């Protein structure tokens, strides 16, 4: 699997600190930290999937339609 790269901006400087904090929060277990972050991301994706159809194209300036492969 190839991660999707955000071409607009480089990663913020705080990501390394955030990664260290996530690992520390899971007792030094990096695998558990990754699993927790993936679960949190999946939860947010489900939330977006539920709300995106209720948000108008104009309100979101078409952002969510483009992200889902819609036309402009």
Describe the structure.
This protein is mostly helical and 72 residues long. It has a domain at 45-72. 53% of the residues lie in helices and 0% in strands. The protein has three helices and no strands. Helix 1 crosses helix 2. The chain is elongated and about 45 Å long. The mean pLDDT is 79.
Core attributes:
about 55% helix; 3 helices; elongated; about 70 residues; mainly alpha
Query: What's the total helix number?
Result: 3
- Principal-axis shape equals elongated
Q: Portion of residues in helices?
A: 40-55%
Rg from Cα: 16 Å
Strand content: under 5%
Structural class assignment: mainly alpha
Main β-sheet description = none
Order of helices and strands: HHH
Unreliable spans = none
Arithmetic mean of pLDDT: 79
Q: Report the end-to-end length measured between terminal Cα atoms.
A: 28 Å
Oligomer: single chain
State the total count of DSSP E strands. 0
Quick structural overview:
It is built from 3 helices and no strands. The chain is mostly helical.
Secondary structure layout plus pairing:
Blueprint (H helix, E strand, L loop, with lengths): L14 H11 L4 H22 L11 H5 L5
């Amino acid at each position: 699997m190839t991660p999707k790269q955000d071409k607009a901006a480089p990663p913020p400087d705080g990501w390394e600190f955030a990664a260290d904090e996530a690992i520390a929060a899971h007792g030094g277990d990096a695998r558990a930290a990754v699993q927790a972050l993936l679960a949190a991301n999946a939860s947010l994706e489900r939330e977006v999937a539920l709300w995106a159809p209720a948000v108008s194209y104009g309100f979101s300036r078409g952002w969510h339609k483009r992200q889902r492969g819609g036309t402009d």
